[in-house]
Amino acid sequence: MANKKFELLDPATGKKSELPVRSGTIGPDVIDIAAVTKDHGAFTFDPGFMATASTESKITYIDGDAGVLLYRGYPIDQLAAKSSFLEVAYLLLNGDLPDAKQLAEFTVNIQRHTMINESLLRMYNGFRYDAHPMAMVSAIVASMSAFYHDSMDINNPRHREIFMHRIIAKLPTIAAAAYKRSVGQPFIYPRNDLDYCSNLLHMYYAVPCEPYHVDPLAAQALDLLLILHADHEQNASTSTVRLAGSTGANPYAAISAGVSALWGPAHGGANEAVLEMLEEIGSVDNIPKFLAQVKDKQSHVRLMGFGHRVYKNFDPRAKIIRDMCHRVLAKMGRADNPLLELAQRLEEIALKDDYFISRKLYPNVDFYSGIIYSALGIPRSMFTVMFAIARTAGWVAHWQEMISDPAYKIGRPRQLYTGPVKRDYVPIGKRG
Q: Is residue 190 within 8 Å of 114, Cβ to Cβ?
């Protein structure tokens, strides 16, 4: 919107400021508030940054009201139906879909970076057998900076490219090693003749004493889940990667910070919470009682996997993943899974019950993803790790976008201070 401006008036002094409006290609305009502090000596206040655009990005766009998710302009449903995770990763990193030659070269680059340093592999033995896999993954990713000194100049485009290929390639290996450590099985080395998701499943479930054959549908389901979780605009983990990276820190530290941010139940652990909820309900017969508790504000019982803080009307990823959930369970002989029966019944109620309709509590992507992971044999402790594997593509895309921008600045959020005013030190003998 050309030359549009807002005017800010301080009624106490009569001082005015003009706040220019910036427009993107799609989405809401943003009001440039840079002059507020200089002109009025005040900060803006926006808890959780829910209404503040802190960066300019060309990567992902979300329209929560319309249920739209675009990766570099491409609708998520089209990418989920026609693309692959590595093609989507290339798209996020480079801005456009690759041609056949570019995709082949990118795939080979990823395949040939799958191994991790043996010293890193031995680090897993330093963790307790019952350590959470996310603790191991976060630590190993951060430690990678000690092993790959050849590509640590963040101002060198070639170094950034090598890093991005490395981290996308090695995350499945790091994740699989964490899983093997948690179950007490030998580490399995990657196979570069397998595709990305087949290799991940191989490293998870193969054992030295017998051959392992990857189920093509399992690999397809996993590829779909990785596509759906590859990026989601500016969120807690992505903004953490940007904030950590804005200091000029090594990129492995920035990605490790993103992994840690993803560990929280409000961000990466939602599908795990769905399974826990379904198991708590127990059977279809217990649904009415459970939903009565959900509707009772005094019970503090939450309906997990329904609604979304971004998608106000529907999650564009939910239908795609629901169809795959049914296919996976049918193929693997788990069509009678009681959790799926519960999920289906809850879905029916949510779509018909006025209580849920009025509050727009519809099934979201997390509602079915946990059931798929369970059907593939992935334990709940690994759900956030799977999320991290997918989201790494988005994280490195955002990190690269920020670092390559000559105008980028170190992140420096402000605060509203409500602590004590200045006071003098009191010797310990005179306190009390």
A: yes
Q: Are residues 89 and 198 in the same domain?
A: yes
- Best CA proximity match to 224, nearest among 87, 99, 33: 87
Tens digits of per-residue pLDDT, 293-342? 988 888 888 888 888 778 877 788 888 888 898 899 888 866 677 877 78
Q: In this structure, what are the phi and psi dihedrals at residue 61, rounded to the nearest 5 degrees?
A: -130, 135
Report the distance separating Cα 70 and Cα 83, nearest Å.
14
Amino acid identity, residue 277? M
The rounded distance, in Å, linking the Cα atoms of 24 and 73 is: 13
Residues 337 and 300 in one domain: yes
Tokens of 377: 């044999």
The pairs formed by 3-7 with CB atoms below 8 angstroms and a separation of 24 or more are: 4/29, 6/31
Instruction: Give the pLDDT score at 304.
Output: 86
In a 3-state reduction of DSSP, which class is residue 8? strand
CATH of the domain at 384: 1.10.580.10
The answer to the question of residue 73 being in a domain is no
Catalytic center residues: 267, 308, 366
295 vs 174, higher pLDDT: 174
The pLDDT of residue 274: 87
Instruction: Assign 3-state DSSP to the chain and report helix, strand, coil percentages, each to 5.
Output: 55, 5, 40
Q: For residue 185, what is the DSSP state?
A: P
Q: Which domain holds residue 10?
A: 5-53
How many residues are there in the chain?
432
Same domain, 285 and 167: yes
What value does the CA radius of gyration of the chain take, rounded to a whole number of Å?
A: 24
The answer to whether residues 172 and 199 touch, using CB atoms and an 8 Å cutoff, is: yes
Annotate 12-29 with b (16+ C-beta within 10 A) or e (fewer). Answer: eeeeebebeeeeeeeeee
For 18, 28, 251, 272, 287, the CA distances from 347, given in Å and listed in that order, are 49, 32, 41, 17, 11
Query: From the CB of residue 240, how many other CB atoms can be counted at a distance below 10 Å?
Result: 22
Cα gap 344→322, rounded to integer Å: 10
DSSP 48: G
b or e along 268-278 (b: 16 or more beta carbons within 10 Å of the residue's beta carbon)?
A: bbbbbbbbebb
Residue 1 has pLDDT above 60, yes or no: no
Provide the pLDDT for residue 334. 67
Backbone dihedral angles phi then psi of residue 69, each to the nearest 5 degrees: -135, 120
